[in-house]
């Protein structure tokens, strides 16, 4: 029977997942933890699959959680249970080599298909736009080696992620409890490192459809 680890901040989600697994996977075992550090209290050697629930706020925290999980369980496939709309900000998850991405508002059939596929050693990216984007990513070696996630610091990538999702400088400052001038400085550093002059060009660069137009 497969053992699945769900890392998410919502205990309610774990209750729903247990019911889902019982319905679609019989005797599958679900381990639930609010954070990675709590795993020391869970008695298992290694799960067969890890599902990470993301947040709607700080995407960069989710990305670094993926890397921390992969360091602890380097051979275990990871599914990103996306708690936001699909968009170019999923690309860093491609860079982290997760096995699947699926939105939390997907139906049971799609979620079950996703889990089955990955337990069989395959990948699963949903919806179709996400699948297509992943295929482009896999086929473009130059893109993978030069993506902006490599070039920016953690904080810079965090600010860039806010910017391409429509947040203003003042809103970012309030959200991160930083001064507006500090956020402006980081924003300027992002623009300088990526050789862009405005948010539109930044959005364009942080997608992979035309990465060379910067």
Automatic annotation (TrEMBL):
<feature type="domain" description="HTH luxR-type">
    <location>
        <begin position="145"/>
        <end position="210"/>
    </location>
</feature>
<dbReference type="InterPro" id="IPR016032">
    <property type="entry name" value="Sig_transdc_resp-reg_C-effctor"/>
</dbReference>
<dbReference type="InterPro" id="IPR000792">
    <property type="entry name" value="Tscrpt_reg_LuxR_C"/>
</dbReference>
<protein>
    <submittedName>
        <fullName>Response regulator transcription factor</fullName>
    </submittedName>
</protein>
<dbReference type="Pfam" id="PF00196">
    <property type="entry name" value="GerE"/>
</dbReference>
<dbReference type="InterPro" id="IPR051015">
    <property type="entry name" value="EvgA-like"/>
</dbReference>
């Amino acid at each position: 029977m497969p053992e699945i680890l769900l890392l998410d901040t919502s205990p309610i989600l774990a209750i729903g997942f247990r019911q889902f697994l019982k319905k679609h996977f019989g005797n599958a075992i679900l381990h639930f933890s609010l954070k990675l550090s709590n795993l020391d209290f869970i008695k298992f050697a290694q799960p067969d699959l890890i599902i990470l629930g993301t947040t709607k706020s700080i995407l960069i925290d989710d990305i670094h959680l993926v890397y921390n999980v992969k360091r602890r369980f380097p051979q275990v496939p990871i599914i990103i249970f996306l708690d936001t709309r699909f968009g170019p900000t999923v690309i860093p998850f491609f860079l982290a080599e997760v096995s699947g991405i699926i939105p939390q508002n997907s139906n049971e059939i799609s979620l079950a298909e996703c889990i089955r596929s990955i337990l069989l050693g395959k990948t699963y990216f949903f919806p179709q736009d996400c699948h297509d984007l992943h295929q482009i990513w896999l086929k473009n070696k130059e893109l993978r080696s030069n993506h902006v996630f490599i070039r920016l610091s953690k904080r810079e990538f965090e600010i860039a992620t806010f910017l391409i999702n429509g947040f203003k400088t003042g809103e970012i400052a309030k959200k991160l409890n930083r001064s507006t001038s500090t956020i402006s400085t980081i924003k300027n550093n992002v623009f300088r490192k990526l050789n862009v002059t405005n948010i539109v060009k930044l959005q364009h660069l942080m997608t992979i459809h035309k990465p060379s137009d910067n």
